[in-house]
Structure formats: structure tokens, C-alpha cells
């Protein structure tokens, strides 16, 4: 075995020392790099924590996926909006509670007022039995109607004409039944100034105390409600109505407001008094009734019980409303009383008018003319202005 020389051993030692130094240098470098990286990482963590503690400080962009930013302003606004919603709900609840309390208080007040009013009405009714506070309001005119004229006897129009007139006649016949059962028919025996009291004609036939549907005579009387024959139950109404009509026309011509107040009521009274208030005092009107062109008759009748309080012996609880047709010939003239100049020559002309006459059976007031009804069936444009000129009031307005 060959023996190595001393020189070779020295070279080997040198080489091994160098390798050991290189290894030590590598280890030292690795240690330095690891320490540097750990320090940098710790610094980054410290900076990140500091920036998180300060939300307004922008975070520098880093490599890799960045975490989602936290919008603190949105959180604050959401918190504020939720608080506002809660406050709004509380205000709404408080307002609703206040509204409910006011409504309940109002209902209680109305109930108390109604109870006090009812107690007052009952107390007054007991103290004055003949005074009916429950029916002091003016009653409206009932569904009285002028009969439709037959323009087309065949076809649909003829059937409509037949049906309308049949329905109107049935309503009037039912009114006869109700008025008879209420003790209001015939309605003229308690009138102190009706024409029969003056001996001008015989009184009508006395009606029974009760209307019986199984009696043909009662049915016949109900169907001939429009008849002015002496045997008809309603024969006195046309005669009385014509008397009221004459008084009203004469009072209009003479500007007699007192008579107008006596023979008219409600709407008709207001219209006449208003028209007379603006009349010139220099013009004099003269009106004259010439004759009846055709008999005055009832064309529609309504009535029935309408009173609830205690009654005197001869009175009844029914209201009677009759639509009466006046077909007359009248004469009218006008002149100036200062100059004696004739404004309108006295001429006779035919006048057809419809008026509602009314009688309240629970009062001692006489029959009155309540309202004028216009016949618009023959006009192409049914307006009251066109028809109003046909009557006396229209002619008076023309010469004012």
C-alpha cells in the first residue's frame, strides 16, 4: 500500500477547510435571509394592524389577492336608516292611536247628542201630544207624472206608451186604497170653504172605512180616480182645485200677495212672490176666467200615511197629492195706469196647465197649490222656458 506524502496531506486539509468555510458561509447567509424575512413580515403585520385601527387611512396595495374593503360609512348609514325607520314607526303608531282616540271621542259625543235629542223629542211629544216634531220638515212632491200621449199606437213605442200609462194608473189606484184605509177619502167634508159648502154641487159619495179588494165596487172606484162624476170618491178634488187655480190667477194679476200665501205653498209660493216683487207699479193687469175648455180632472194621484203623533178627532195621518189638469180659456189685458195706454189688448186664449194640489190630513190647513208640473211630451226640446210662456205668469213676465 503506498504511503501518502506530507504534501498531499496538507492539500487535503486545505481543501477540507475551504469546504467547511463555504458551508459555514452558506449557513450564515441562510440565517441572515430568514431573519430578514421574519423582520419584514412582522413589520407588515404591524403596519396592517395600525392601518386597520385608522379606517380613514388608505391601505397600500400588496401583492396577491387583496382583502375586501370594509365600508364603514355604509354601516353607519344603515344604522341611521334603521333608527329612522324605528322612529317613523313609533310616530305612525302614536298618530294612529291619537286618531283612534279622537274617533272614539267623536262617536261618544254623537251618541250623547242623539240620546239627548231623542229624550227632548219624547219629552216635548208627551207635553204637547198634538205637536209632531218628527214630521216638521217639508215633504217632497211625490212621483206624480203627466200621462204619456200616444204618438205611435203600434210597435215598441205603442207598447211603451201602454205600459207607462198602466203603471201610472196602478200607482194612483193604490193611493186610493191607502187614503181610504187612512180615513182621508173623500177628503172634503172637513173643509170649511170647499165648493160643496156653498151649495154649488152635491157632495161626493161617502167612502167606506176600509178598502176591500174583494169588492168590485171598491176596485171600480180605485180605477176611476180621475173621474169628476158625483158618484166618484175623488170627485171633489177637481172642483176644489179649479177654485184654487182661479184664486191664484186673480191674485197674480192683482198683485195680491196675501191671497197667494193662502192658496199656494212651498215652491209655487216662492216663485210667485219672487216674480211679484219685481213688478212695476205703473202697469195694471186684468185677468178673467172665460170657461173650461174641457173638464178639470186628476191625471195622477199619490198619498198615504205620513204622520205619527197624536191626532184630533176629525183629522187623519195621510198626505194627499193630486196632479190636476186645467184646460181653460182665459182673457188677459194690461195697460199703464198713468197714461191709460193699452199695452196688451184683451184677448181670449186657451191655456193648459198642470198643478199639484196638496192636503195634509193632520193639520187644519186647507188644500193648497204646491207646484207646477210641465208637460214636455210634445216638445222636441223640452225646456221650462218654452212652456212657461204659455201660462199667465209667462205673459206677465213678457209685459214687465
Automatic annotation (TrEMBL):
<keyword id="KW-0496">Mitochondrion</keyword>
<dbReference type="InterPro" id="IPR051975">
    <property type="entry name" value="mtLSU_mL45"/>
</dbReference>
<protein>
    <recommendedName>
        <fullName>Tim44-like domain-containing protein</fullName>
    </recommendedName>
</protein>
<feature type="region of interest" description="Disordered">
    <location>
        <begin position="34"/>
        <end position="113"/>
    </location>
</feature>
<dbReference type="GO" id="GO:0005739">
    <property type="term" value="C:mitochondrion"/>
</dbReference>
<keyword id="KW-0809">Transit peptide</keyword>
<feature type="compositionally biased region" description="Basic and acidic residues">
    <location>
        <begin position="88"/>
        <end position="109"/>
    </location>
</feature>
Amino acid at each position: 500500500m503506498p504511503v501518502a506524502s506530507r504534501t498531499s496531506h496538507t492539500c487535503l486539509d486545505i481543501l477540507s477547510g475551504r469546504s467547511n468555510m463555504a458551508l459555514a458561509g452558506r449557513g450564515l447567509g441562510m440565517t441572515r435571509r430568514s431573519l430578514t424575512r421574519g423582520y419584514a413580515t412582522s413589520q407588515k403585520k404591524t403596519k396592517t394592524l395600525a392601518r386597520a385601527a385608522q379606517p380613514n387611512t388608505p391601505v397600500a396595495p400588496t401583492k396577491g389577492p387583496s382583502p375586501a374593503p370594509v365600508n364603514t360609512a355604509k354601516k353607519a348609514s344603515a344604522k341611521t336608516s334603521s333608527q329612522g325607520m324605528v322612529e317613523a314607526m313609533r310616530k305612525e303608531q302614536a298618530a294612529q292611536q291619537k286618531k283612534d282616540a279622537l274617533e272614539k271621542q267623536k262617536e261618544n259625543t254623537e251618541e250623547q247628542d242623539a240620546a239627548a235629542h231623542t229624550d227632548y223629542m219624547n219629552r216635548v211629544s208627551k207635553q204637547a201630544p198634538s205637536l209632531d216634531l218628527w214630521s216638521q220638515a217639508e215633504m217632497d212632491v211625490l212621483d206624480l207624472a203627466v200621462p204619456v200621449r200616444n204618438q205611435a199606437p203600434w210597435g215598441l213605442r205603442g207598447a211603451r206608451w201602454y205600459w207607462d200609462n198602466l203603471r201610472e194608473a196602478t200607482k194612483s189606484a193604490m193611493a186610493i186604497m191607502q187614503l181610504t184605509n187612512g180615513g182621508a177619502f173623500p177628503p172634503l167634508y172637513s173643509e170649511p170653504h170647499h165648493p160643496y159648502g156653498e151649495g154649488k154641487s152635491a157632495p161626493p159619495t161617502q167612502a167606506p172605512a176600509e178598502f176591500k179588494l174583494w169588492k168590485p165596487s171598491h176596485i171600480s172606484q180605485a180605477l176611476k180616480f180621475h173621474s169628476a162624476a158625483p158618484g166618484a170618491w175623488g170627485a171633489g178634488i177637481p172642483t176644489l182645485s179649479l177654485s184654487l187655480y182661479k184664486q191664484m190667477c186673480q191674485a197674480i194679476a192683482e198683485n195680491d200677495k196675501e191671497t197667494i200665501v193662502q192658496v199656494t205653498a212651498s215652491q209655487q209660493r216662492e216663485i210667485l212672490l219672487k216674480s211679484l216683487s219685481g213688478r212695476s207699479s205703473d202697469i195694471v193687469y186684468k185677468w178673467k176666467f172665460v170657461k173650461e175648455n174641457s173638464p178639470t180632472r186628476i191625471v195622477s194621484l199619490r198619498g198615504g200615511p205620513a204622520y205619527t203623533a197624536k191626532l184630533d178627532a176629525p183629522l187623519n195621518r195621510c198626505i194627499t197629492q193630486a196632479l190636476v189638469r186645467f184646460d181653460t180659456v182665459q182673457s188677459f189685458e194690461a195697460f199703464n195706469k198713468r197714461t191709460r195706454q193699452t199695452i196688451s189688448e184683451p184677448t181670449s186664449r186657451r191655456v193648459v196647465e198642470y198643478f199639484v194640489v196638496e192636503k195634509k190630513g193632520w193639520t187644519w190647513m186647507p188644500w193648497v197649490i204646491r207646484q207646477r208640473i210641465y208637460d214636455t211630451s210634445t216638445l222636441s226640446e223640452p225646456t221650462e222656458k218654452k212652456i212657461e210662456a204659455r201660462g199667465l205668469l209667462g205673459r206677465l213676465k213678457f209685459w214687465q
